[in-house]
Structure formats: C-alpha cells, structure tokens
Target: Acyl-coenzyme A oxidase
Amino acid sequence: MSRYIREGDNPDLTEERRKASFDTEAMAELFWGARNLMRRREIANYVEQHREFDDPQPTAFMTREELIENATRKAVLTMEHAEKAIDITRDEESHYFNALTMGIDGNPFGLHLVMAIPTIMNNADEGQQDEWLPKALNREFIATYAQTEMGHGTNLKKLETTATYDPKTQEFILHSPTITSTKWWPGNLGKSSNYSVVMAQLYSQGKCYGAHPFFVQLRDLRTHKPLPGITVGDIGPKFGINTNDNGFLRFDQVRIPRRSMFMKHAKILPDGTYVPPSHSKLNYSAMVYVRAAVVSLMASHLLACSTIAVRYSCIRRQGEITPGTGEVKVLDYQTQQYRIFPQIARGVAFRLSGNYIIQLYRQTMTDIKNGDISAVPDLHAISCGLKAVTSYQGALGLEQCRMACGGHGYLQASGFPLQYTVAIGACTYEGENMVMLLQTARHLIKMAKAIRSGRPPKPNKVIDYLFKKGPTKCLIDQTYDPNYQSVLEAFEHLSRRVTLEVYDRLVQLQQQGRSYELAWNECAVDLCKATRAHVRTFLAKTFVEEVNKIADISLKSVFQDLLQLYLFYEVTECAAGLLEDGFMSGQQLTYAKKNVYDALAKIRPNAAAIVDSFDISDRELQSVLGRRDGNVYENLLKWAQMSPLNKHDVLPFHHKYLGKMMDEARQKSKL
Ligand SMILES: CCCCCCCCCCCCCCCCC/C=C/C(=O)SCCNC(=O)CCNC(=O)[C@H](O)C(C)(C)COP(=O)(O)OP(=O)(O)OC[C@H]1O[C@@H](n2cnc3c(N)ncnc32)[C@H](O)[C@@H]1OP(=O)(O)O
Ligand SMILES: Cc1cc2nc3c(=O)[nH]c(=O)nc-3n(C[C@H](O)[C@H](O)[C@H](O)COP(=O)(O)OP(=O)(O)OC[C@H]3O[C@@H](n4cnc5c(N)ncnc54)[C@H](O)[C@@H]3O)c2cc1C
Model:
C-alpha cells in the first residue's frame, strides 16, 4: 500500500492512490535514487522533529520585516543544525535541507552559497582561497555577488563601477561615478551581507581591462555598519522574493588591498602590470553555475505545482460529464489533464537534463583546474539555452497549474503565488532570457558555418546531429517505436533547418551590405527560434535516453507514458515549424495530437501516485490545496481564520470611514 495513504485522508484522493498501476515507493526510488530518497526522508524527519523550524504563522500573513526576521532566525538555525542533519559536502542534501528549513522565498545565505562561495572556489588563487574559503564556509562573514548596476545588467562591458589600481599604495580605489553605476539587485546585499564579490572595470597604468571580480568588505564586522565610503541598502518590495533583501550599493573612492582582486585567472602585479586570463570569460563561472542550476530549479517548481494541481483536482468535484451520474473529480476533464499533465512531463524532462548539465558544469570546472578550457564554450552555449527555455516554459506551466485550480488557485493558500513569483525571477536573473537565447544562437551560427563549409568540429554529443543528414520527410506514423526515432528526427530536422536558414539569411544580409551586427539584429527573432529548437532536441533526446535505461517494466511503462506525452506535446507546440517546409503533413500532426490525448488518458489513473512519487512534503509545498491528505476545505477555512484581518470582528478604523459614510447616508435618506 502507498505510504501516502493514511487514515483520515480525503477518500477521493485515497481512491486515486489505490488505482495506481505501480508501486509509488519504487517510483520515488527510481526518481531520486535509493540513497538520495533515504536521505531525503531522514532529513525531512529531522526537520519535523525540530519544531523551531516552523513558521509562527503562515508567511503570507507576515509583513516584510517579519518575513526577513523569520528567515534570518531560521537561517541561523539551519546553519547550527546542518552538521547534525546532513552531509554538508553533498550539494543535494544541502539544497534539500535548506529548502525544508528556509523555504524558497529567499534567505540571508542565498547568494553566499550559490554565487559567492562558487566564485571563491573557481576564481580565487590558492592564497586567496586559503584565506577566504574556510571563513566563508565557517560563516564568519556573509557575502553576496554584486554585478548588476542600475544602468547595466546585460551588457557587462558597460558596467561603470571602477577599480583603479594605485601602485604607490598597492591598492585599488573602488568608485561609483554616476547614479547609474549604483549596484542594484544583488540578493542579500541590502541588510544581511557584510562582504561582496563586486564586478568593476579594472584600470591600471591608465588602461581599462574590462570587468573583473573583487572581494570587498562592506560592513564593520562588529557593528555591521557600512564602512566609510560605502552606501548600501534594500531596493524595496518586488514582484516576489520579498524575503530577500536585494540591495543597492555605492562606493565613494573606497580603497581595498591589491589582493582583493580575484587572481586565479587574471592578475595585477604589484607594479600595475596586467596579466590576462587564459579565457576571457572564466570570471563568469558563478553565472554559469546558476544558469545550469536553474534547469533543476525549474523542474522542482513544475513538479511542486503539478503536485498541487493534481491533488486538488482529485478532491475537487464540479459538474457532470455524463448527466445524472454525479459530479466528477475535475481531473476527469480532458482539458484539465491537458493543462496539468504536460507540466509533469516537462518537469521530469527538466530534471533529467538538469542532472546532465550540472555534471557537465562540475566536469568543466575540474577541467579548468587542470588547465583544459576546451569545454567552456560548449557549456556556456547549452547552459544559456537551457536556462532560457526551462525558465520560460516553467513560468507558463506554473500559471497553467494555477489556472487549473480555479478561484482557490488564486489564493496565497494555494502555494502558487510563492512558487510563481520565485520561479519567474529566473527568466530575468543570470542573463535575461532573450539575451541567453542569443548567446546559444552564436554557437549555433558557428556550427552552421562549419556545416556550410563542410568542416565539422570535433564530435560533441549536444551538436553532432546538426551535421547529420536526416530524412527529408517526417516519418511519424501510427506505429509505436520506444526510441521515438521519428519524433527525434523531426526535432533535429527543425533545429537544423531553422539554424541553416537563419545562417543563410545572415550571410545574405551581409552580402547586401549590412554589418554583421545589423544583420544579426534583423535575424534575432529567428535566431531565438533556432535556439529553442536546439534546446527542445536536447531535452527530448535526454528524456528518451534516460527512459531507455529503466529496467523495471511497470515503472518504465509510466515513464513511457510521460515521455509519449512530452514528445508529442512538443510536436504540437512546434507544428508550425514542421509544417512550414512541408516536412510534416497535416495527417502526421493529427497522429501527434492523438498520441497526446492517448497519453493523457493513460496517465490519468496514475496521476496522483505519480506526483506522490516526487516525494514533495507538505512543508515544501506550503499549499492548502496540495496537502498530502487532501483535506482542503476545512483547512482553507482554518487558514483564512488566521488572517490578521480576522483578529477583529470590526476593523479598528471601520467607524472612521465606511461606518461613518453609511451612517451619514442613512441619516440623509431619512431626511
Ligand atoms: C531541491 C533540489 C533543487 C535543486 C536546485 C538546485 C538549486 C541550486 C541553487 C540555485 C538557486 C538559484 C538562486 C537564484 C539566485 C539568483 C541570483 C542572481 C544573480 C544574478 O543575476 S548575477 C548577474 C547576472 N548577470 C548576467 O547574467 C549578465 C548577462 N550578460 C552576460 O553574461 C554577458 O555580458 C553576455 C553573455 C551577454 C555577453 O558577454 P560580453 O559582452 O562580455 O561578451 P561578448 O558579447 O563580447 O562575447 C564574447 C564571447 O564570450 C562568450 N561568452 C560570454 N559569456 C560567456 C561565459 N560565461 N562563458 C563562456 N563564454 C562566454 C560569448 O558567447 C562570446 O563568444 P563568441 O565565441 O565570440 O561567440
Ligand atoms: C530576482 C532577481 C535577482 C537578481 N539577483 C542579482 C544578484 O544577486 N546579483 C546581480 O548582480 N544581479 C542580480 N539581478 C540582476 C539581473 O541579473 C539582471 O536584471 C539581468 O541580468 C538583466 O539585466 P537588466 O536588468 O539590465 O536588463 P536589460 O539588459 O536592461 O534588459 C531589458 C530588456 O532589453 C533586452 N535586451 C537587452 N540587451 C539585449 C541584447 N543584447 N539583445 C536583445 N535584447 C536585449 C532584454 O531582453 C530585456 O527584454 C537579479 C535580478 C532579479 C530579477
């Protein structure tokens, strides 16, 4: 019996769980890996046993100051408990523990852990690492990553903060020369951090060498007051992540020692001589890390929101399908399945590719340490595209899940506002999505040039298909092929065609006299399409490869249903491109649609068990609609009764305004 079934649960949800064709626990093991699943359970138990991690009230009812104080309290507790609760050397355990204890809306260590420490690890030289890393890991300071300025986020070449080297004192002078040079956005900068990685234009011997990272103390270690010459604060409430004190920062001729510059790659010698790095973008590795991590992060958001939507849709009865047979669970509507199930399938696809890209990141960082930088451009290209596509599709998917939950989906109690507002930040941070799509397109255009000139680069799993000659006509038909060769070939065809077409147009525009840059801008929409097609191909191939590795037949069959849905849903999404050149026929699109509808029907009886197997706890979901026990209605009422507005039957200012107005209106009407 499923470990998710317990006495007192909503019977509709229990009925769903009993219907499953597979063992939920075995599926959870397959999804997370046996060891990880066991550790998740142990960590979750640990947190449940320490009630001090509980929020004093739902965070939706807290003011911003209360939110930040509560997050700070829990962050300190998290650090105190970490060594007892988890193996701190395992990222998976840290991420999970942090998500359970601190939630997803931000915490004072967010940027310290995901950007500052990775920058120290990858950009500090040995001496600097010896000095900074133990203190950073030991929480002797909290650092953030200050790169974006009010005037420039994308175009790093135009950052205005300067770091001018003074050989006489062997110091850099940090300065913010204009309002637009104010650092703006860095997470945890406003109030929590006392150190920061600061990106500034490096000047030495009268020459500018471009943006470089520096490690800068911002606040006094004892009083926590900003150091002389430093102005720092919170940028105010935002669309979401209001638990995070995203900040602003200005420097007024602040002197820092020469060794504050990160010197693993580029260096300034004491006399001011600049030593360039082996690759000009090695200083950007923390950004590459977060871009790669976003893929898994989007998987987590999608799987959480589809868990909420599926569970709620199992207990929500509304309307009849066959008149007179009683109200159905709303999950029985095909439209509901069409809204929610593709989000599950995309979540799974993102999880699988997310694992791949993080491994590639780790391998590339190891290679760099060993002096091999050859994988840097490939990692950059695929991580930019994946970040852009998964964050965008993730955002659309979460919104579908919300809308699938009707009016209650619009409540903060649903958990959707928190998930959505956190997730959509990823469309912007770490490189705005269009900009990221265009970065991948740069790589694709190089590949197109190589194809046209008949000189393929050295073999590479991600782009090899571009150099293949695929079928000239789409081979999708009604026969079942577990390798989905014809669908993958269709995606490859579309990617290859769009890439080559846009390349040819770029060349043609230049032949007509446009500069490369102007031609590029005229082709930008299609360049983005090429990236999307390339990323779709990558996600789809990774999904097929991973499903083919599954040994257990009953679990494999569930994954195959999700894969079928994923692939044919993507075919319908990019149908215009496949039909445009006559590669796919209208009939084949009809087959694809039929495959989507068939997959929805196959997934339907397993849906509740599938989302259970993602093993997302109520503590993580923070959702009344997505509760494991399905007891939504009584808990919605309890939740609303906790609203601070309900502390008073009559609001203290009622008689001052509305009461008075109505009294006066009644008086007048009596006259
Ligand atoms: C429960 C389990 C869940 C698991 C989840 C795991 C959780 C992990 C935690 C993750 C949590 C996430 C928390 C979120 C925190 C968010 C914090 C946000 C931080 C930020 O936003 S920091 C600021 C980010 N800013 C940017 O990204 C700026 C974007 N701009 C740029 O990157 C660049 O300027 C550019 C790419 C647009 C262009 O660069 P530039 O102008 O310098 O260069 P050129 O145009 O001249 O290009 C030259 C060539 O260099 C290549 N290039 C560029 N960048 C790189 C790179 N990084 N690596 C390699 N190569 C690079 C270009 O492509 C050019 O190449 P070409 O050969 O000439 O074509
Ligand atoms: C939640 C959140 C957290 C953040 N955290 C941090 C942090 O910790 N540290 C930090 O340093 N920064 C942080 N940022 C800033 C973030 O990295 C930038 O906002 C982001 O890189 C985009 O830059 P921008 O705001 O200057 O946008 P802009 O570059 O001004 O973009 C505006 C529009 O112009 C378009 N555009 C710009 N350039 C091009 C181009 N070359 N081609 C085509 N279109 C273009 C964009 O696509 C976009 O639509 C954060 C931002 C957010 C929203």
About this structure: The radius of gyration is 27 Å.
